[in-house]
């Protein structure tokens, strides 16, 4: 059965394309399938615009892994040759496997699991099988016993060579929303709300007619009950659509925020600073909580106002029609005034928050160097401005909340009283007029609440749109996988006449060429501001040259892919640009590897610490390498943290190691010892330091 589902090694890139089509992602002609054995699935997936995430599981957890694996690729061995299974979809316990001939086959997940077990060579011990046969087990009991023995024997055995494919996070929020197809839920909500309002008005009209005519026939009562049940059903359907939209949009915003933050260049991060980035994250949270509720409430209010306007036109109450239009205009003016006041209030609030974070970070500096008489003048000035804008914001919010609904009730009641006293309308028309007045009155209250939520959404969008949108001028032009210019040398890194500069100033680097050989050690010296760190950032893929070529192992960054590029070239930034997480020392050392670690990972980490002179530190810690080092490396000196950063890089086993003043915090003896150990590493090393 599985023989026809296996894709041979020669068709592995076509297999990726087949799954890409299921993700609604077009395959670029520039990266058409090529039978190049040097191109891995991960790199080719990056080139066609998707993500192929390597999955590492074990024998015990394989069924749970396959439960969320679609779409994915599983490497198997068939007739002593490598092949691949393509899992496209999942329905219940059925998996859809794609065949090389263009067809597909549905099979049970258990069969796929058993096939993978057999392919990996996980067979029961013959002695155990013989024992089971002697016990006389048959049927399901025998299968369960064999499965239990296999789980006990191979539970922790790793299963690798699996890739989960997914579309990457969209470049902008609009594309992400379009990809999730949220329009159907919005349409469903709107239609359900309109149908519910029609059912409610029909039920109210029937009730008013029955009361006026003293007519309570079974047909009228049944019709009223059906109208109320329809209103309840449509309302429940609308709420269900709203919940789906709210959850999906919240997930999109969170995903976009995280992906956009990770796409930020180091220059953008330094420009914004932690206080502004934290403020943007908080505003994005407000965007999520206010966008959909405000939009749905506004849509409800608009539909109710439209229904009330339609009723007024049908019964020819033109005064009521005119009032609705006038109050709509008044609501719009009040909303604009409220938006301006809220925007100014938000500006003052953000300034206070950013100043508070900045002062917390620099509290020691302020205490030591700032004059006590001037220490709080800025805070007092901002607090006074915040108090003033808060009063204005509160006043406009109160007017928006109470002015229009109150005046509407007074004006519309006057129209109703005139119609009653002058007997201008029939009883049914009076009931319809009263229903329209109350419906629109409720709509003004809902509109006021929704207007405030939408203003908060608009304000939050103004603050976070640069974070949720792609950065400009940072994309690197991709090249065909088969058209990468070849290099005549065997160097790891080839730099050919690259230039780079910030803004419109003179280029920091101009027509720079380097040819760095693998296994060698290089020293880069220069004055402050000469472009040393800029060059290392370009080599590490943190920035793109404005002109020229940069090749790693004869391939440029787009063809190799960011993941493989940064695995091949490891950059250890300066001390203030590196980070230690609030976790164990082992976690910080193995940040570039998988987690949880294997015993081999732990042994490698301890060996790296020994090479860099961190063994005394491990002996001093109560928990050794499992000791928690705290946020920003608390409990470690600057020199110890510098060596942890260097050990973290060595544990990634890169081909090229870039050290940006990594030995500046160490004494000369320790520095010489580390340099001596680096000579024994297979990777090339470029050390950047001051003269």
UniProtKB/TrEMBL annotation:
Protein localization: Cell membrane
Entry keyword set: ATP-binding, Membrane, Nucleotide-binding, Transmembrane, Transmembrane helix
Start and end residues of each ABC transporter domain: 493-691
Highest taxon above the source species: Bacteria
Domain ABC transmembrane type-1: 206-463
Any Pfam family the entry gives: ABC_tran
InterPro entries found in the cross-reference section: ABC1_TM_dom, ABC1_TM_sf, ABC_transporter-like_ATP-bd, ABC_transporter-like_CS, P-loop_NTPase, Type_1_exporter
Spans through the membrane: 189-209, 215-234, 291-314, 320-339, 403-424
Recorded GO MF terms: ATP binding
Membrane topology label: Multi-pass membrane protein
PANTHER family given in the database record: ATP-BINDING CASSETTE SUB-FAMILY B, ATP-BINDING CASSETTE SUB-FAMILY B MEMBER 6
Protein name: ATP-binding cassette subfamily B protein
Organismal lineage: Bacteria, Pseudomonadati, Pseudomonadota, Gammaproteobacteria, Cellvibrionales
